[in-house]
Design brief:
The complex is a heterodimer. By secondary structure, chain A is α/β, with parallel strands linked by helices. Chain A has a single domain, classed as Hypothetical Protein Ychn, Chain: A (3-Layer(aba) Sandwich). Helices cover 28% and strands 18% of the residues of chain A. Chain A contains five helices and five strands; from the N terminus they run H-E-H-E-H-E-H-E-H-E. In chain A, strands 4-3-2-1-5 form a five-stranded parallel beta sheet. Chain B has one domain: DsrEFH-like (Hypothetical Protein Ychn, Chain: A, 3-Layer(aba) Sandwich). The radius of gyration of chain B is 14 Å and the shape is globular. Chain B is an alpha/beta fold. In chain B, helix 1 packs parallel to helix 2. Classes of the chains: A alpha/beta, B alpha/beta. Chains A and B meet through helix 2 and strand 5 of A and helix 3 and helix 5 of B.
């Protein structure tokens, strides 16, 4: 798709939420979700990302994929800011259950309770679940 | 209502592909509009014309083709996901120097922007996946 095609939607801005539910390397969902977010940024929508269940591992610091021979794409999350994707939410219950804290993540996030996450979802117009 | 459909799983492996088809068909028969069906992740495998299920089983690819012919559906296969999984049309064959194509009729390969556009243009984006 060329740049003109991507820009022709000018005007409509919707609230997009990407829900990331899976660990980063066990399946390709996390990587391909990130690709949607990056491409989607050109449409200048109101974008949020939520990390729940094993999805919280996507943001974990210190990922080393050398031995599994896969590309470590975790640095890309730090680039999201340049794409104006700055609303990153982590589900507290998922984080706690895995023994993680905010300090374990490669980017600043807002930690939400399950109830707050439900409210966030309620407030969205388009939810893409990966 | 105007729907957009996202199919995240391949045929036969996972019911999501069947459910997406059943939902799309039912919506169209009820007089709703389907703006686009977007195939992502292993969902791109729904769009190969080389699919050959046993004769007493449903033919998932042909079902989409028939539905698209009847309702002028826009069946879009994500190019990035297709490249990883070897779904090829004439353009991709030339661009990537491949020796064959396998895209099914009525399907077309295009970018992720088509998914975002579908989310913007439709009243509801329905995601079918695991």
């Amino acid at each position: 798709m060329n740049e003109d095609e991507m820009m022709e939607e000018g005007g409509t801005i919707k609230k997009f939420l990407y829900v990331n539910r899976r660990a980063p390397y066990g399946s390709v969902y996390a990587l391909e979700s990130l690709e949607v977010v990056l491409i989607g940024a050109a449409f200048e929508q109101d974008v949020s990302m939520a990390f729940v269940d094993d999805g919280v591992y996507q943001l974990k610091k210190g990922q080393d994929t050398k031995d599994v021979d896969m590309k470590n794409f975790s640095p890309t999350y730090r680039a999201l800011e340049m794409y104006d994707v700055e609303k990153l939410y982590v589900d507290k219950a998922s984080m706690d259950a895995r023994g993680l804290t905010e300090e374990d993540f490669v980017v600043p996030v807002e930690v939400l309770s399950t109830e707050q996450l439900a409210e966030l979802m309620e407030d969205q117009e388009v939810i893409l679940s990966f | 209502m105007k729907f957009a459909i996202q199919v995240n799983e391949g045929p036969y492996q996972h019911q999501a592909s069947d459910t997406a088809y059943q939902f799309t068909k039912a919506a169209l028969e009820k007089g709703h509009e389907v703006f686009r069906v977007f195939f992502y992740h292993d969902g791109v495998n729904n769009g190969t014309r080389l699919t050959t299920p046993p004769q007493d089983d449903r033919h998932i690819t042909n079902r989409w083709i028939d539905l698209a012919e009847k309702y002028k559906l826009d069946l879009v296969v994500c190019v990035a996901a297709a490249q990883r999984r070897g779904i090829v049309d004439d353009d991709e064959m030339k661009r990537q120097g491949k020796d064959a194509t396998n895209i099914a009729p009525q399907f077309r390969i295009s970018g992720l922007g088509q998914l975002i556009e579908a989310g913007i243009q439709s009243d509801r984006l329905m995601v079918f996946g695991d």
